[in-house]
């Protein structure tokens, strides 16, 4: 049954986009550099043919695989295949070709146990609630299986990999994100420092600094197909976290020139002028699709035959990925909930959070330079900080609304929709406490928040109030956004804002804790649905991911800050919205059996392969066994749901806002994961898993 369904999902998709030949580009696009030089992983006929064939559920799967032989030999062999099939190989032939010439994704890594990880971390002593203390220890333990070290063969034979060689071990986000990522690492480093793992943090920072030294920027992530785009510029704040925790001034002295080099990149490559004020934007100049989302990008724009429009789309979609918010209604040309990804106009938007981050960088750099006795450089960065603070206030602050807003430079107007990012200046402190009318900014912002209706949800604050299919919109809450909002409100010093900050931290912690305890196996997720308590978020280009680096770091920081007050006990007054109750009934036995199979298979797999960096045939066999068992478990759980779930909640249609219809069901989860029946009263969760065909289509064609 599962194999049958997998066949239709993986191999039965009939795209209207031809996979023959190469991608057709405009003349202007041909003048731009490719995403990277590799004709295997970044551009060209081979990549186009493989990705458009739809061999994998996730386009990233292919570009993360390792070559068995040199790329020239693979391309020559591919040319023979194309010539022998009249340029039209079947999916079976392409699948066989991949199996013959590539190893599974994850082949870049070797075993690594962090030497600075120790049991019984001291931060647990400050947590009053026993359940949260046990949970905090589990988050601390997660660093041991989220750690990765790149094999030396990547350095010796870089042509065989899409992975950039980095000499020091690092912590990954988790799931499909097998490599180091830029802005995720700020919150990962927060958590690592709480765990006392200074050496691991130092190594991660040295990796980022090496990237700045060699390619001129910190890329989106540690793959060659990311090298033309960055992410929110948080390297300087990461260094500040490390130096403050370790006192390692020598590290700062040795690397300050590379921090300056990254600042130069943003100033030279991403700066625009608006009415005499300099601000920065996300802007990636590439002439084709993102390799890791190749098929998705082409399908989003193929309806438009205008090659220039296609080029604009490719640049805007890559810039959207550079934002870290991939994707959101923030980047639509008019912020319209009815718009789709083909209307992304990221390069026109001057974002509040990005400009706040760069101002923060300048402020920290000024203090760094002063600390090192470099007074002239300190003044330069102090002046840049003052300039950016003035620009943010002049262009992005709306005094009538009492908030900052992204500015659309093409249409010369604010996007006045609610986004958590609107309030980033509170987090970095780049604002004057009083408005031009001498009103308190904290009071104005609190009034704005209350009027926005963004505070009414039990699981945290939604990323936006826009009901779209994108993951950085309603109803998802994201860990870094919750952290910046909570800490920003707390930093104002306003008593009302500080109490709201704690309340939001409590909601977020409880949401994360419930999802952790109600999932089998216990899991942390990259994002959560804030309209309920205890369920992960959905939407976007890929399934919800487990791990999860920045989620763990944010919760750990909240546990440190509010450990004496946070509780794992449900507060009914906070839960304004709740999902409909479900009864297990006839399906109880099947649910339990599905839970047992999913848990047993996953724990066996984790024990056998602590991480995904084992190589060889046994790796593929174990994955196949796990996928098969997980699929069976998923079928059993869904059977239980069909018999037992009573969903009386009205679901919003695309385009509805939460005011008209508050509950949206989360996207289905990986087949081995399910949510138990709740044990704390009226809010009981059962895995909402209908898309069995999607869950049974495993990502690897080796099966």
Characterise the protein shown here.
One of its GO terms (biological process) is trehalose catabolic process. InterPro entries: 6-hairpin_glycosidase_sf, 6hp_glycosidase-like_sf, Glyco_hydro_37, Glyco_hydro_37_CS. Its EC number is 3.2.1.28. It comes from Artemia franciscana (Brine shrimp). This is Trehalase. Among the domains are: 138 residues, no CATH class; 83 residues, no CATH class. Helices cover 46% and strands 6% of the residues. Helix 9 packs parallel to helix 11. A hairpin with a 2-residue loop joins strand 6 and strand 7. A 3-stranded antiparallel sheet has the order 3-4-5. Strands 8-11-12 form a 3-stranded antiparallel sheet, with helices on one face. A two-stranded antiparallel sheet has the order 1-2. The two termini are 15 Å apart. The protein contains 24 helices and 16 strands. It is mainly alpha-helical and 703 residues long. It is globular, with a radius of gyration of 25 Å.
Notable traits:
about 700 residues, three-stranded antiparallel beta sheet, globular, disordered N terminus, disordered C terminus, signal, Glyco_hydro_37
Give the helices and strands, then pairings.
Elements: H1 2-11, H2 27-31, H3 45-52, H4 59-63, E1 66-67, H5 71-84, H6 91-101, E2 102-103, E3 109-110, H7 130-146, E4 147-150, H8 152-156, E5 170-171, H9 184-194, H10 198-215, H11 235-246, H12 249-269, E6 271-274, E7 277-280, H13 294-301, H14 307-322, E8 349-350, H15 352-371, H16 375-396, E9 397-398, E10 403-404, E11 406-408, E12 413-415, H17 424-428, H18 441-452, E13 476-477, H19 479-491, H20 495-518, E14 519-520, E15 528-529, H21 549-562, H22 588-608, H23 617-644, E16 674-675, H24 692-696
Antiparallel strand pairs: 1-2, 3-4, 4-5, 6-7, 8-11, 9-10, 11-12, 13-15, 14-16
Helix pairs in contact: 7-21, 9-10, 9-11, 9-21, 10-11, 11-12, 11-15, 12-15, 15-16, 19-20, 19-21, 20-21, 22-23
Family: Belongs to the glycosyl hydrolase 37 family.
Protein name: Trehalase
GO biological process, one term: trehalose catabolic process
């Amino acid at each position: 049954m599962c194999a049958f369904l997998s066949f239709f999902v993986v191999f039965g998709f009939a795209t209207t986009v031809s996979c023959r030949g190469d991608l057709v580009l405009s003349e202007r696009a041909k003048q731009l550099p490719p995403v990277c030089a590799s004709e295997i992983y970044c551009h060209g006929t081979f990549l186009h043919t493989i990705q458009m064939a739809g061999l994998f559920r996730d386009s990233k799967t292919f570009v993360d695989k390792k070559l068995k032989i040199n790329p020239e030999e693979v391309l020559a062999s591919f040319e023979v295949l194309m010539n022998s099939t009249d340029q039209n190989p079947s999916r079976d032939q392409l699948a066989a070709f991949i199996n013959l010439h590539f190893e599974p994704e994850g082949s870049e890594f070797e075993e690594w146990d962090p030497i600075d990880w120790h049991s019984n971390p001291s931060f647990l002593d400050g947590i009053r609630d026993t359940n949260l203390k046990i949970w905090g220890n589990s988050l601390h333990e997660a660093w041991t299986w989220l750690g990765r070290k790149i094999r030396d063969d990547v350095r010796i034979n870089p042509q065989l990999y899409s992975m950039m060689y980095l000499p020091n071990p690092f912590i990954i986000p988790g799931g499909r994100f097998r490599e180091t990522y830029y802005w995720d690492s700020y919150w990962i480093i927060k958590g690592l420092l709480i765990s006392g793992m200074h050496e691991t943090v130092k190594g991660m920072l040295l990796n980022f600094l090496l990237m700045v030294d060699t390619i001129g920027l910190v890329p989106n992530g540690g793959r060659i197909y990311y090298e033309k785009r960055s992410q929110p510029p948080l390297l300087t704040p990461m260094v500040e976290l490390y130096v403050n925790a370790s006192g390692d001034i020598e590290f700062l002295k040795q690397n300050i020139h590379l921090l300056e080099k990254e600042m130069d990149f943003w100033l030279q490559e991403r700066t625009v002028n608006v009415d005499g004020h300099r601000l920065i934007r996300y802007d990636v100049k590439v002439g084709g699709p993102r390799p890791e989302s190749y098929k998705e990008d082409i399908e989003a724009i193929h309806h438009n035959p205008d090659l220039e429009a296609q080029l604009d789309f490719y640049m805007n979609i890559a810039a959207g990925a550079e934002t870290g918010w991939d994707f959101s209604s923030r980047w639509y040309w008019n912020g319209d909930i009815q718009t789709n990804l083909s209307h992304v106009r990221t390069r026109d938007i001057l974002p509040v959070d990005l400009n706040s981050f760069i101002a923060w960088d300048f402020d920290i750099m000024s203090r760094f330079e002063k600390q090192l006795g470099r007074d002239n450089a300190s003044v330069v960065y102090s002046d840049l900080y003052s300039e950016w603070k003035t620009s943010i206030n002049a262009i992005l602050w709306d005094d009538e609304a009492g908030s900052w807003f992204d500015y659309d430079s093409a249409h010369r107007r604010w996007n006045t929709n609610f986004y958590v990012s609107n309030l980033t200046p509170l987090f970095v402190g780049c604002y004057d406490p009083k408005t031009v009318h001498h009103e308190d900014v904290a009071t104005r912002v609190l009034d704005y928040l209350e009027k926005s209706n963004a505070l009414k949800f039990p699981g945290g604050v939604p990323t936006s109030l826009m009901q779209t299919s994108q993951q950085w919109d309603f109803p998802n809450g994201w860990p870094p956004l919750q952290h910046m909002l909570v800490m920003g409100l707390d930093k104002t010093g306003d008593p009302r804002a500080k109490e709201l900050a704690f309340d939001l931290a409590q909601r977020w912690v409880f949401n994360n804790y419930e999802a952790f305890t109600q999932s089998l196996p216990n899991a942390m997720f990259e994002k959560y649905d804030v309209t309920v308590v205890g369920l992960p978020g959905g939407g976007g280009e890929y399934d919800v991911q487990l791990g999860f680096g920045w989620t763990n770091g944010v919760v750990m920081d909240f546990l440190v800050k509010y450990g004496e007050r946070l509780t794992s006990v449900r507060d009914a007054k906070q839960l304004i919205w709740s999902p409909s109750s479900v009864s297990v009934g006839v399906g109880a036995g099947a649910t339990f059996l599905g839970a047992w199979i999913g848990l047993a298979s996953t724990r066996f797999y984790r024990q056998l392969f602590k991480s995904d960096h084992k190589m060889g045939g046994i790796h593929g066999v174990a994955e196949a066994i796990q996928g098969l068992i997980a699929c069976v478990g998923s079928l059993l759980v869904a059977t239980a749901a069909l018999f037992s779930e009573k969903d009386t909640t009205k679901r919003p249609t695309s385009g509805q806002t939460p005011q008209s219809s508050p509950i949206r069901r989360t996207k289905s989860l990986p087949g081995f994961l399910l949510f138990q029946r709740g044990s704390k009263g009226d809010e009981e969760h059962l895995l909402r898993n209908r898309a069995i065909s999607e869950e049974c289509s495993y990502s690897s064609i080796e099966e």
